[in-house]
Amino acid sequence: MDIHEYQAKEILQGFGVKVPPGGLAYSPEQATYRAHEIGGDKWVVKAQVHTGGRGKAGGVKVCSDEHEVFDAANAMFGKKLVTHQSGPAGKIVYRVYIEGGVEIERELYLGFVLDRSTERIMVVASSEGGMEIEEIAEDEPESIVRSLIDPAVGLTEFQAREIAFELGITGKQMQQAVATIMGSYRAFRDLDATMVEINPLVLTTDGNILALDAKMGFDDNAMFRRPEISELRDKSQEDPRETRAADRGLSYVGLEGNIGCIVNGAGLAMATMDMIKTSGGEPANFLDIGGGASPERVAKAFRLVRSDENVDAILVNIFAGINRCDWVAEGVVEALTNNPVDVPVIVRLAGTNVDEGRQIIADSGLPILMATTLSEAAKISVGSCPRHEDKINHTAEAA
Ligand code: GDP
Ligand code: MN
Question: For the whole model, what pTM was predicted?
C-alpha cells in the first residue's frame, strides 16, 4: 500500500525528521489560504498522486505570490498527471500540498528498502539527489552508498554517522543527518513499511537538513495491525481492478495483456501466465482465487476478470487437491449461467473428481472450451482471441 507525500512527511516528522511547513488543499481557494497560513514569499504547490516523477510532468510548481499559488493549484485539480513512473493511465489529482519554499544548497538521496538476497533492510543513499535512483545508478554509480542493517541490532548511530559522512555531511549538520537517518529507519521498522524514500533530502542555505519529498510503501499483509496506516489508503490512486479484488478478498494483480486468468494457487497462477506467454499471448492479470475455490469465489472471480475491458478470453485453470473439480465446475457453470460472457472461456481441470467436473461442464451446454493440459489451455486461449500486440498496433494506427 502506498500513501501520499504529505502523509509520509507527517509520519516521518513524528519520528524526528525535519520537513518544510506545509498544508493540504482540496481547492485552489484552500491552496491560497494555506500559502497565507504558511507565510513567507515563496511556496511550492505539489500534486498529491501515488507516483514519482511529478516535477518533470508539471506536478510541482514553485510560486512567488498567492495568485500564482491559486493558478498552479487550479491547473492541477482534476487533471490526469502522467509521469514516466505512473504508466500511461496516469493518476488524477484530487489533493495538492502547499509547502513553504526552501533555498536549496545540495540535494541528497536517502532510501530504505528490503534487500531480498540478504533478507535485511538496506539503506541506499547518494550525494546526487533530485534525480531518480535508477538515473543515479546510471550516471553516478560511485556516489551510491549501501549499508545493510543487522536485524538483531537495528541501525546504529555509528552506522548512520558513517552514511552521513559518505554523503559529505560535516560539522553541525552531522547531528541532524543522524537524526534524519535514524528517524526514517524507525518509521520503516515500526510501521511495517516496505519502502521509505526521501528524494531529495536537502541541505538548505541556512544550514538545515529537510525532507523535501517523501514516499512510503507498506506491507499489505501487515495492515491488519496498523489501522492508523490503513486509514491513509486512497482508493482514487489505485488500479480500480486491484481495489475491487482487495475488497473481495482475492489476490489480483492487473497486467497489460488480454487473456484473463482465474486460477487456484499462486504458483499455478504464475505457471499459467508463463504458459500464456510461451504460447505467444499476454495475460491480463494474475489472480489466485485460493485453495477452497467455492462457487461464490469463482463467480466473484469471473465478475472481476470481466470488469477489465481489455479481456478477450478467459482461462480458468484449476488443480483440485483438497478441492474437487465437480464443485469448481458447478461454480463455473453457475457463474456463466447467471452472467453470460461474450468472450471465449477456456477451462482446464485437473485433480480430484476431474471426470465428474468435465461431465458437468459438457452437460451444461455452455460454450466452454475444455482443455486437458495447461499448455493446451494456453494455446486455445491465445488462438481464440486477437493478439495483444496487434490490438495495440491497431489502436495506435487508429489514434
Ligand atoms: P517528484 O518529481 O515527484 O520526485 O517531486 P519532488 O517533490 O521531488 O520535487 C521535484 C523537484 O522540485 C525537487 O527535486 C526540487 O529540485 C524541486 N523543489 C521541490 N520543492 C522545492 C523548494 O521548496 N524549493 C526549490 N527551490 N525547489 C524545490
Ligand atoms: Mn522526488
Answer: 0.79
